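Q: Got a minute? One more chain.
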Amino acid sequence: MPLNSLPPVTTAAGLMTKAETMDGRCSVDVGLWGGAIPDNTRGDTSVLADVLGRGALGFKCFLAPSGVDEFP
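A: Always. Here it is, folded:
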């Protein structure tokens, strides 16, 4: 999930960091999810489109504070 480790997957760079970290280390098929937060959902949604374009399966978001500072 996008907020269970750092960096959170709220940008394409965060997604690629997680994908590169697990490359060659996973013995099972996994998928990465992006995170929808206020900073990447207001106005221009190209950040979300970029995360999807890099392979995210979908997005997790909260309607209340998540309890994780990096994932408001």
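A: The CA atoms of residues 40 and 48 lie 7 Å apart.
Q: Perfect, thanks.
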